Amino acid sequence: MAFRERAFPTWTRLTTINRRAMRRNSDRGRLLQTSTFICGAVGLDTDLSFVYQLFALLVCTLVFARLSIKVRSPDVSVKRQLPKYATAGVPFEYFITVINGGNRVERDLKVLDNPKIIPPDLAQFERMKEPGEETRNAYDRWLGFHRFIWLQKLNTGISLKNADVPDVELLSHAQAIVEATPLRRGHVYFESTTILHPDPFGLNYGATEFDNREHLTVLPKRYPIPRRFEFKGGRHFQPGGINSTWSIGESDEFVSLRDYRDGDPIRKIHWASSAKRDKPIVKEFQDEFFVRQALIVDTLGDNPAAFEEVISVAASLLTNIENLDGLMDLYFMSTRPEIITAGRGYAQTSQQLEALATLQLTDQLSSDFVDLLSQHARRMSGCLMVFSGFGKQQETLLATIENRGVQTTVFIVTGESDATTYREDFYVLEAEDIEAGLKAL
Questions:
Q1: Which of 119, 158, 191, 278 is surrounded by the fewest CB atoms within 10 Å?
Q2: Does the 290-439 domain belong in CATH 3.10.180.10?
Q3: CB contact set of 428 (below 8 Å; sequence gap of 6+)
Q4: May I ask the CATH class of domain 2-118+157-219?
């Protein structure tokens, strides 16, 4: 433990130095440097070999190439164009515009986008294991450097490729296409953008860095849901009527006009008809029935891998119901109980997916969350519940809904070693093969 605590800062510095070295040298330059070292070693004895002359030539070439970079740097600026959303694990492309403000055409430029590098802390390092780590040798497993690199990439959240910039004409601009792959859900933060310009021999690159802070929202990974899968619960009585789904306040479905009766609220008087008939006429409304599904996401537990699949299953269900006629209420526990409703007059499904993208594990079930579900159960046509395991706290959530007569559909995400026997009406999904489990619905 003490060794790893001391090693962490060293690993962070090593990875930083390696990134800088890789971006400053071209493949040709690295080959020439290797050749220089070999010639230097072989030509130590100048009486036996004339290789030292080649060594001197190579050294002069490397020094000249390095100095030429400092003399000439491009006069450019950059602008990043990110999409609104990306999806974890799904590659995408975006543009970086390079604007030439100088007096010459800029050629052979490269662009690097720099996300914020987030190294893991010791607690995360001890808690999470690299996929396939058991196949590494004992020394690598003890040292843990490969796990550190994997966690640092995961925390950073995105993998980016260098992009070539087309020739940028005088006082013009060109767009570089950057290929990116999000590695996790949540927010990915960008800190800067680097423009690399080569020396005359193409051995080294000079770097001009631009402060370019921005963030990208990465939505959870989603799986296809079979069309044959049906949500339980039909149309259900909704206080306030279906118009309440697109208006604010108490608003019902208009039916007809009728004579005023004692006790009718003044706001329901239809003034135009009252003026024509010379007596009070009121508008009559009726409440309506429509589908209002609920989706409860379990944030309890201590298994990060299973929790990620819980989020993905929940996101898949939200996407599947997006085009259905009705509302979807997303319930979850973060720092406090929260509910986000999507449908006509409410938020879009993308806002629910945004909430799932930043959701974190919680320690224990909140009584406030149970009370929220109990109060809202009467509005539910049906309820979807996605759990990672099924303990006493999950059982409490299920009982809170079922005791009020709401039909439920329960998904349980399990690990390989889980031998628990669940209810026959539960859908049990293995964390290692979620897609196959959902296809079988």
A1: 278
A2: no
A3: 412, 414, 422, 437
A4: mainly beta
